[in-house]
Each structure stands twice: as structure tokens, then as C-alpha cells.
Amino acid sequence: MPIHPPEPFRIKMVEPIELITKEERREAIKHAGYNLFGLKAEDVFIDLLTDSGTGAMSQEQWSALMVGDESYAGSRSYHRLAETVSKIFGFNHFVPTHQGRAAENILCSILLKEKQSVPSNTHFDTTDANIRARKANPVNLVIDEAYDPGVKHPFKGNMDLEKLDNFISQTGAENIPFGMLTITNNAGGGQPVSMENIRLVSKIYRDNKIPFFIDACRYAENTYFIKLRESGFEDRSTLDIAREIFSHADGATMSAKKDAHVNIGGFLAMNDHQLYQNAGNELILREGFLTYGGLAGRDLDAIAVGLQEGLDEKYLSYRLNQTAYLAEKLFEKGIPILRPAGGHAVYVDAKSFFPQIPQSEYPAHALCVELYIEGGIRTIEIGSVMFAHIDPATGETVYPQLELVRLAIPRRVYTQSHLDYVVDVFSKITGRKDNIKGLKITYAPELLRHFTARFEPL
Ligand code: F0G
């Protein structure tokens, strides 16, 4: 029997949620063009769409908002954040941004040219799209185990070092302006990357003189996985592990909306001074001055506090065990999930759940729609809606290997009974799953189509 860890906090403020009737849910999802992003949040009962910006801030973070310094330049809030970023990440420079994708945009705008390539274990959708938007190629080189939902590997987010080496030799380092690594690997199941892998990826990039940027959104969860699973790290603090991770890189993109426990914010960090100056020019053009980058001073203070709370080991133990609890409960009920559980989310393997639905009819998206209709649960598809694309060389549609539904758990928001309810809803769908059909797309924009596409059931 999986055991839910007791929450290391108690609840001081509540936000009501309501389960509208099934008839109302059917109407709401139809009205939204069968896209869960189109729903009104008030029509959702349990919102597992994302763990991004949806966490609960602590009393210390709310207090920090009150001392926010709103000076245009050089605010105390900026300096408090700078001190924390330097303590954890150790890079020479950073610029605040309004969220992670703004950091990605700046990085791509100053380094990336048409037809160049950027390797990673797996790029997340916004990184993938930021690279494609510049007519360049995002390349995913995660280990093969990542594509097999049943294989239990402690670091399923690892980069395949041989693939990386081969890719660099074939492409030429001069066509790779920077390389990345996503920790934890969100699009590949929220799986961690080992310190050994980070070291070796760094060595390959450095031997080839390719600047190495870590996509660090969920770095704190990754540090705790390293502490739990990698020998030699049992007795090291998460802060110490984080410092070592980033010492292997030349910079990082960060969405503070995840492991920094805030509702908005991010940054781009780097060692290189020239790069910092170029990033600063782009920041001032599009985001804001160097010391606030599109955020209010109070946001910078909340990030500074959240970054430190994110590394708290008692909290991280609770966090990873809560996710594992949901995963194991679903597994017990026979739901095919990606194992082991990720850090921030549980991923359901929709290809196995709906073998009757081909990828061209979006099995993972069909499951998202069913979860909403059955139980008012909102999830996200990480499969063909998000990642299928036309190969420019052949004109054919290329489908992703994994067809997943992600149940992302907002930080410090839902309790055990909410998660038990989710498991019950899955059980109800399982009873009639063979009769469920896929969907067709009736509208889609060129990039990031999952946000606004519209569908019709088949
Ligand atoms: N990188 C990763 C690994 C992410 O998961 C995200 C966002 C981003 C970059 C972009 O950050 O949203 O602050 O601009 N992921 C969210 C999610 C949206 O639901 O997983 P952002």
C-alpha cells in the first residue's frame, strides 16, 4: 500500500473549488473546442494542467512581497535575489525575466542562427518552439530507456552520451551555438539526470567548445533525486548538490514558476561577460531594465525566498513522495504509467491505455478530455498534439515516440484526498475505455498548437 506523506505545512487560507455537473462539464469542454486550455478555471475541480505558477506561496514569501522595493534601477529586491541566485547557481551574471520562455527567447536571439542545431536530452515545448521559430533545429538525445514507459531506470532523464558525441561530429561544433540539458526532463516524464551524466555532458560540450546551458526549472527536485539515488551524494546537502550541478555549466535558463515557488518570474544566468551584455541589451528592449526584467520588485523578493524554500530537504522528501504516491496508486489500479514516477508529475502512457486509438487521432488528448468529463480533472497532453510536426524534407508527419497524459501536481496545493479522488476517476474511465474514440483537429496555429488548437470528437 503506498503511503501518502503528511504535508509539512498546515492550511491557513483556503480557495473554494466546485465540481459542476457532468452535463455542465460536457457543455464546457465542447464550448472550449475540446481543448482544456479553453476551459474556465472555475469549471475545473482538480487542476493538474501544470505545476507552473500554480503553487501556494509560503507565509515567508507573502511577507517578502511587503518589503519589495519598486525602484526602477538597483532595487534592494534585485540585490536580495542576486545574492540568492549567486549562492545557489554560482554564475557570474544573471538577468531577471518574466518567465522561463523569455529567458529562452533572449538566449536564442543572441546566439542562434537559421539552420543551426541545439541538442538536449529533451527540449520542452517552449524551448523547442523558440528554436524552431528561428528556423533552427531542436534535437533530443535522451537515453533509449526514456522511451520505454515500463523500464525502471533511476535517471531516465540522462543524455545518451554516444548519441551526443555522434551528433556533434556529424553536425560540426560550429553549427551548434549552444547545447542544453533539461533537469528534470519534463517532456520525457519529469525524470532526473544524474550528476555523473551532467559531468560527462559538460565534458563533451566543453571539449567541443560548445557553451552549455541547463534548463533549470526543476533543478531542486533533481538535486533530491541525486541525493536519494546516486552513490556518494547521500550525505551532501541539496544546496551543495545544486552548486556542483551548475559548476559544470556555462549558464542556465530558469522558470521560477516551478522550483522557486512563485506565480511568475524567471531568469537567464551565464558566466560570459560579453554574453551578459548582449542579453542585457535584448532584455532592455523587450522585458525591462537589467535589475527587474519584466517583474515587480516584490516578485523578485518572492523568488529569492522561494528559491531557498525549494531546496528544503523535508519539503522535497514530501514532494517526491506525494508524486510517487499518486503514481503507485494508479499503477495498483492497472493504469499504465511511466515508471518510476517523475518529480513534479505522473505521466500516463496513453498508447497502452487506448490501443484502439492511432496517434493520428490523439489518444493522449482523448484521455485528457475523458478525465475532464468524468471527474472535472484538468490535465495536459504531452504527445502528438504537442509534438507531432511535418518533416520539411519529406512532407510527412513525424509522431513523437511517447503519447503521454501528464498529471502535474501544483506545489503545496492538493492533499491526499484530492489525489485519491483522481485515482477513483481513472477507475471509472477504465471500465469503459475500449469504447472511447479519438479526435480530429479543426484548427491549429503553426507553432505551440496545443495551447489554442480546436478539436472535434470522431
Ligand atoms: N522549460 C521547462 C522544462 C518547462 O517545463 C517550462 C514550462 C519552460 C521551460 C518554460 O517556462 O512557462 O515559465 O515560460 N513548463 C510549464 C509546464 C508551462 O506546464 O510544464 P515558462
Question: What does this 3D model show about the protein?
Answer:
There is one protein chain. Helices cover 40% and strands 13% of the residues. The strands form six sheets. The chain has a five-stranded mixed β-sheet with strand order 2-8-7-6-5, sandwiched between helices. The model has no long low-confidence stretch (mean pLDDT 97). The protein has helices at 22-31, 59-66, 76-89, 100-111, 125-132, 161-171, 195-207, 219-229, 238-247, 273-286, 297-310, 313-332, 350-353, 363-375, 384-387, 416-430; strands at residues 46-47, 93-97, 117-120, 137-140, 179-182, 212-215, 251-255, 266-270, 345-349, 377-378, 380-382, 389-390, 397-398, 404-408, 439-443, 454-457. By secondary structure, the protein is an alpha/beta fold. It has 16 helices and 16 strands. Bound molecules: ligand F0G. Ligand F0G is lined by residues 50, 52, 99-101, 124, 126-127, 182, 186, 215, 217, 255, 257, 266.
Q: How do the helices and strands line up, and which of them pair or pack?
A:
Layout: H1 22-31, E1 46-47, H2 59-66, H3 76-89, E2 93-97, H4 100-111, E3 117-120, H5 125-132, E4 137-140, H6 161-171, E5 179-182, H7 195-207, E6 212-215, H8 219-229, H9 238-247, E7 251-255, E8 266-270, H10 273-286, H11 297-310, H12 313-332, E9 345-349, H13 350-353, H14 363-375, E10 377-378, E11 380-382, H15 384-387, E12 389-390, E13 397-398, E14 404-408, H16 416-430, E15 439-443, E16 454-457
Parallel strand pairs: 1-10, 3-4, 5-6, 6-7
Antiparallel strand pairs: 2-8, 7-8, 9-14, 11-14, 12-13, 15-16
Helix pairs in contact: 1-14, 2-11, 3-11, 4-5, 4-10, 8-9, 8-12, 12-16, 14-16
The structure holds ligand F0G.
Ligand F0G is lined by residues 50, 52, 99-101, 124, 126-127, 182, 186, 215, 217, 255, 257, 266.
